[in-house]
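Figure 6 in text form: structure in, sequence out.
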């Protein structure tokens, strides 16, 4: 199988349904950003961390392929294709993971500056890419409906990545640097 098809040489690409759209179409931008997020999660998963976190990240990566396939399909055609769905159980899993991690973390009293350890920084980069994906998907949703579970999953995923960054800081004994704004006279 050849990787190159030459069908995109003029700046268009195909959705799952075969419809051709420009490569800068908001639908392409949305699932392209999910792909970027998935790559960052792969980099994060390659770091030294507990096996449960690695397993959860792999599960999330698989779910992001589901999100990408949903975003690559026009909403009026998705019933014709056998596309998996994001379920409430997928969202609840992220919530349960956050609750478990939060039980072991010190209370957060301030905003935290990203950083402290390379692994933590990779997690924060993934979180911000996730937030960008969420903004793009929300914009797409204003024009063409996106399943609410997809919007919720991506929103919850960015929260999960924030809590995971805090847990990684804790596990790696990295300092969490609080952001304390300057007092103005």
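Output sequence:
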């Amino acid at each position: 199988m050849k990787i190159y098809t030459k069908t995109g040489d003029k700046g268009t690409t195909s959705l799952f349904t075969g419809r051709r759209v420009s490569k800068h179409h908001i639908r392409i931008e949305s699932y392209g950003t999910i792909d970027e997020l998935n790559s960052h999660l792969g980099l994060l998963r390659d770091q030294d961390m507990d096996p449960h976190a690695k397993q959860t990240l792999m599960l999330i990566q698989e779910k992001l392929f589901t999100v990408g396939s949903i975003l690559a399909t026009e909403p009026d055609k998705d019933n014709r294709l056998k596309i998996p769905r994001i379920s409430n159980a997928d969202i609840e899993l992220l919530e349960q993971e956050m609750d478990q991690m939060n039980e072991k973390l010190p209370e957060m009293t301030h905003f935290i500056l990203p950083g402290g350890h390379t692994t933590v920084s990779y997690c924060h980069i993934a979180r911000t890419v996730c937030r960008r994906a969420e903004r793009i998907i929300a914009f797409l949703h204003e024009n063409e409906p996106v399943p609410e579970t997809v919007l919720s999953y991506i929103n919850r995923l960015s929260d999960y990545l924030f809590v995971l960054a805090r847990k990684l800081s804790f596990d790696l004994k990295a300092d969490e640097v609080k952001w304390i704004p300057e007092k103005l006279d």
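Caption detail: The first strand starts at residue 12 and ends at 14.
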